[in-house]
Amino acid sequence: MKTSSLVCLLAFAITEVSAFPSIALDAAKIEALTKQSTSITKKAIGFDPVAQYVSTTGSHQFVPPNFAAGDQRGPCPGLNAAANHGYIPHNGVGTMGQIIDGVNTAFGMALDLGAFLAIYGAVFDGNLLGYSIGGPTTASQLPLSNTLGLTGAPQGLSGSHNKYESDVSPTRGDLYLYGNDYTVQVAQFKQYYEALPDGLSASAQYDALAPFHNARFQDSKNRNPNFFYSPFSGILVSPAGYNFPVRMMSNKSAEFPEGSLDKETFKSFFAITGNYPNFKYHMGYERIPDNWYKRAIGDEYTIPGFLADVLNHVEKYPELASIGGNVGKVNTFAPVDITALTKGVFSSANLLKGNNLECFVLQSAEAALPDIAIGTLGNLLGTVTSATKPFSDAVASRLAGLGCPKLASLDKNQFNKYPGYANCKDGCSHY
Ligand code: HEM
Ligand SMILES: *[C@@H]1O[C@H](CO)[C@@H](O)[C@H](O)[C@H]1NC(C)=O
């Protein structure tokens, strides 16, 4: 039911998007994207400079945001850079289709992962069809004039704390500690910079980043009395900040076909100038370096690839999979009772076994989706074209094909003892 509602939601949204010709993905593109993300077999990765070159000239020239004119930038350096280079709309407000397509073209994020992230952005932080990559924006820029905002007026990614944005981000501060969750804390960037080894492949770099990841988790525990780590934004989204840079911001080359993230490229993507250790952050100036190469065609970053990376760090530091938070004072981390939360379907003893962690986070992400009244949308679903079907199937197959114990719903009352959750139940941009 939940899976089918997710698929329907996606299908519905794509149908709606198609009603706006300028923002629709064309059928050929969707089919090509789907083929990419469903080719599971790992071939040897090559380097094709022509196919992998990412333009930073002409219509993709760097244009910084004009905040006074309403341009939006937020907690995601990938989306900020994509907007600055016109791979997604420059104003930082886009439809799911525009964002999925843009991050595929600019970074080689696979359709399945792009769709998964985009759906959640649209549902939790937008109006179902699209969203702002920064703060709230005037309704007119969003299709259907925000009438479908499901969780209140769309707050954008910056205002999605606990729904999407999470504590333990690598460079963005914990909301409660800094009063915002979307600007770079230069001291954190400096630690990240120090932890990133030069001249290694992306995989080796990612391995080397595990202690920094753990240190960020410990820092939240030790300093943030309202630290909260949820199944979706905590366990699933916050690790992205540790693997997306080496996987999707690294430059690809014949020497490093899977990429290697050098320090200058890293700084450029995080809007940092100056020489170590005297860094300066220029909010919104995330930039794709000139002469930069994305992931190989056929080697896009997929949901399975992402989950393997998440589990890699969890194996090194199992605490990174603990759901829970501090209970009002620093160093009071109390794990949530997984059995109670999942009504007996999972337990802390079996969560790290088999596919369970993956099943749990994907299903709880789904369980968190507001119920969509399929009845009301039924007539619209009838118009789904064959072009959009493979698109929704790509998401469905991942969610359905894991052989998961069935999680019916989450008992969210289990989270009430955490002030970081209780004070910010529906996402917030400040306490
Ligand atoms: C549909 C596409 C995407 C969506 C909806 C999205 C959304 C987000 C959100 C909500 C956060 C905040 C998470 C947190 O609080 O920890 C975030 C962080 C981040 N994202 Fe994205 N993202 C997308 C694509 C990308 C891509 C393609 C890249 C890289 C090329 C990227 C790189 C990052 C990084 C590095 C962070 C961590 C920032 C930090 O704290 O240092 N994202 N993203
Ligand atoms: C990326 O790698 C290519 C191929 O080795 C190289 O020519 C280019 O200068 C590199 N780009 C950046 C931004 O480092």
TrEMBL record:
Source taxon at top rank:
Eukaryota
Q: State its cofactor.
A: heme b
Q: Which residues form the signal peptide?
A: 1-19
What InterPro entries does its record include?
Answer: Chloroperoxidase (IPR000028), Chloroperoxidase-like_sf (IPR036851)
Domain Heme haloperoxidase family profile, by residue range, is: 58-308
Q: Which UniProt keywords apply?
A: Heme, Iron, Metal-binding, Oxidoreductase, Peroxidase, Signal
Q: Which GO terms describe its molecular function?
A: metal ion binding; peroxidase activity
* KW tRNA processing (keyword) present: no
Which PANTHER family does the annotation name?
HEME HALOPEROXIDASE FAMILY PROFILE DOMAIN-CONTAINING PROTEIN (PTHR33577:SF1), STERIGMATOCYSTIN BIOSYNTHESIS PEROXIDASE STCC-RELATED (PTHR33577)
**Family classification:** Belongs to the chloroperoxidase family.
Q: What name does the UniProt record give this protein? A: Heme haloperoxidase family profile domain-containing protein
Q: Which organism is it from?
A: Coleophoma cylindrospora
